[in-house]
């Protein structure tokens, strides 16, 4: 079944353009990060308590 699933994934990726494939891979490996002010506020709240 592993080979079948790989073949199916290959067929799916064939229909994607390079940009679409790149954005999908980026979304998988680099999940969108929260805005900077949010992370800064979280960091200040966390480190300020120490």
Automatic annotation (TrEMBL):
This is Uncharacterized protein. It comes from the Bacteria.
